[in-house]
């Protein structure tokens, strides 16, 4: 299949996902937020789920965590334009707090319900390397026993459906933003950049 065919298939899968009712999350979400980026990407970035801004705009990583991720990618020598960016869960799970919608962690059933969409993205894009941004992304591929800290910054062989390649785990960019003080946020950011740099080297970019 030519690359144009892969792009067409990604668009079809995204259209199918837009009407997904495999778990209850679709009932409160504004819309499905599917992955975006190069269909020929050597690196796929997998986050947790859309946030408030992603849910409203319909695009992955466009909120505060996304802006921080863009900066970290640039600092590690990776162009976001050369990546495919998605989430393990495609609907925003939230609870109301005053006038704000606060993110809630997806549960195991919700993560498993969304796995076929991620498998489809992996199979069509066929990245050389997948960067797992946080614990939910890790659980999606490897199960609930996966711990980011045990694999942080280390490239390992992995398979998912028809895809086979390398995986590097790191923290989710939102973890940097949640740091209690500037010093801890700086340390977390430096660690994120170091892990992304290791991912770049593993993918031979």
Give an account of the 3D structure.
- This protein is of the alpha/beta class.
- It has one domain (3-202): Uracil-DNA glycosylase-like domain (Uracil-DNA Glycosylase, subunit E, 3-Layer(aba) Sandwich), CATH 3.40.470.10.
- Helices cover 43% and strands 19% of the residues.
Task: Outline the secondary-structure elements.
Elements: H1 3-17, E1 36-37, E2 43-47, H2 52-57, H3 64-75, E3 83-87, E4 94-97, E5 100-103, H4 108-125, E6 129-133, H5 135-142, H6 148-151, E7 156-160, E8 163-170, H7 173-177, H8 182-202
Parallel strand pairs: 2-3, 2-6, 6-8
Antiparallel strand pairs: 1-3, 4-5, 7-8
Alpha-beta content class: alpha/beta
Shape summary? globular
Alpha-carbon Rg, integer: 16 Å
Mean pLDDT: 93
The appropriate CATH architecture is 3-Layer(aba) Sandwich
Q: What keywords describe this structure?
A:
205 residues; alpha/beta; six-stranded mixed beta sheet; two-stranded antiparallel sheet; 8 helices; 8 strands
Short account of what is shown:
The chain has 205 residues and is of the alpha/beta class. It is built from eight helices and eight strands; from the N terminus they run αββααβββαβααββαα. The chain has one domain: Uracil-DNA Glycosylase, subunit E (3-Layer(aba) Sandwich), CATH 3.40.470.10.
């Amino acid at each position: 299949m030519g690359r144009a065919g892969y792009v067409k298939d990604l668009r079809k899968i995204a259209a199918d996902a837009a009407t997904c009712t495999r778990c209850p999350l679709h009932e409160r979400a504004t819309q499905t937020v599917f992955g975006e980026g190069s269909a020929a990407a050597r690196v796929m970035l997998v986050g947790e789920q859309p946030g408030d801004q992603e849910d409203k705009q319909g695009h992955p990583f466009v909120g505060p965590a996304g802006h921080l991720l863009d900066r970290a990618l640039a600092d590690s020598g990776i162009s976001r334009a050369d990546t495919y960016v998605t989430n393990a869960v495609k609907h925003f799970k939230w609870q109301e707090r005053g006038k704000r919608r606060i993110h809630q962690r997806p549960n195991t059933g919700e993560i498993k319900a969304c796995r076929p969409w991620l498998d489809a993205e992996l199979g069509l894009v066929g990245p050389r390397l997948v960067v797992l941004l946080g614990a939910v992304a890790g659980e999606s591929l490897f199960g609930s026993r996966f711990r980011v800290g045990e694999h942080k910054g280390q490239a390992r062989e992995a398979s998912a459906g028809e895809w086979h390649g390398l995986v590097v785990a790191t923290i989710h960019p939102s973890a940097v933003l949640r740091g209690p003080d500037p010093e801890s946020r700086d340390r977390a950011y430096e660690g994120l950049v170091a892990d992304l740099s290791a991912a770049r080297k593993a993918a031979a970019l």
